[in-house]
Amino acid sequence: MDSDFLLQTLRLLISGVPLTLQLAFYSIAAGAVFAVLLALMRLSGSRVLDYAARSYVFVFRGTPLLVQIFLIYYGLGQFPEIRQSLLWPFLREPYWCALLALTLNTAAYSSEIIRGGILSVPFGQIEAARACGMSRALIFRRIVVPQGLIVALPAYGNEIILMTRSTALASVITLMEVTGIASKIISETFRAVEVFVCAGAIYLILNFAISRAIALLERRLSPQARGAKLAADVPEPAR
Amino acid sequence: MSDYVELMGFGPKGWGLLMVQATLMTIAVSAAAFALGSVLGALVAWARIEGNRLVRLAADVYTTVLRGIPDLLVIYLLYFGGSQALTALAHLLGAKGFVGVNSFAAGAIAVGIISGAYQGEIFRGAFNAIARGELEAARSVGMPRLLLFRRIIVPQALRFAIPGLGNVWQLALKESALISVVGLTEILRQAQVGAGSTRQPFEFFITAAVLYLLLSTFSGMAFQRAEFVAMRGVRRS
To answer: Which domains does chain B have, with CATH numbers?
Structure first.
């Protein structure tokens, strides 16, 4: 291995990091909003909403992400109705297609994680909040979200890492993020091992940073772990 | 709708037979990958339970790296890196030109290595679920290690591992779609070929999606059945 080639490869690959991060960030953010909606649909108690969300999750978790990307990028353009609609300027671009597919995909996986978090809040607490006369929105904001979030966070952190990994598939529809650049260099130079080492190192560093950030957030959100004493545990000061 | 039936049917212009063949290819390559993953997973689990520090570290590195790197990169590495190595070897033996790796082998090994990283964790968890007393009892009656492994550990660990293995199988099934990028004619590749030559990508990719859904649904049912059968002897609280 010569270090010149490695350095040059690394420099080229790093120029793809912003796009990788952008795809991951936007799809996770939009996916989270959509996922909360899906989770609420499943817990709404309405049969129709529950069934709709259930089928959505079934379809998007049961098919490969690559098929979803192809369906959106190549499949939708087949219909003249879509080609003439206002959405076409977006759906024509591989960037927006990849973003849409990633968003829809992560929404399906995250909605189950969020649903698990919401369900983990003991019902007694909700009952107590109701007895105090809290409105549904207030209960959700003050009781369900803070407690559900901490339960859902480890699994959600995993999902964030998986999504960062999945952005690599955008390279198949010509986007030049880290993996796209890597495959271009490999096909030009046929030095797969060196390129793999460089690209792999970039992804590992990204994922390491994300998992540290999640761990930090987890610590911040759980006062017990920080060693803070709950109000009831603090002994009365001597008078 | 009748157009669709003709397109995907088994008539002279239909793509039905090709899609069925591609589905069998997906099953074959996923199964090969899953089997390889089981062997690697068992090795990882053994390394983390019994291994010395060096072996444990190696297992840790393997799991972390393969879970953090995009699957597509691993497939590229094995396909292009493998071809690179084979070509070099062939040149050493006096041959000329380019020697490519078989895309089935490269794909199955790549997906197998990835699923092995996940299966290692599952096997370790399953081993930890076995009651310690059983292992102690087996040792105290003087069972040799291999017999203990075969009679006590395997049947029980496998039972606890079924739900997790089901998840990994679904993962392998979906990851097998990525092997299409190196030219293996499985479901997605066949759909791409059909989409290209008929200019009807929507029909072909929807069909591909339905085929994957069918595969994952039926195999999910099979794993549930297997879990039911395996857990019959276990008393649940």
So the answer is: 2-230 (1.10.3720.10)
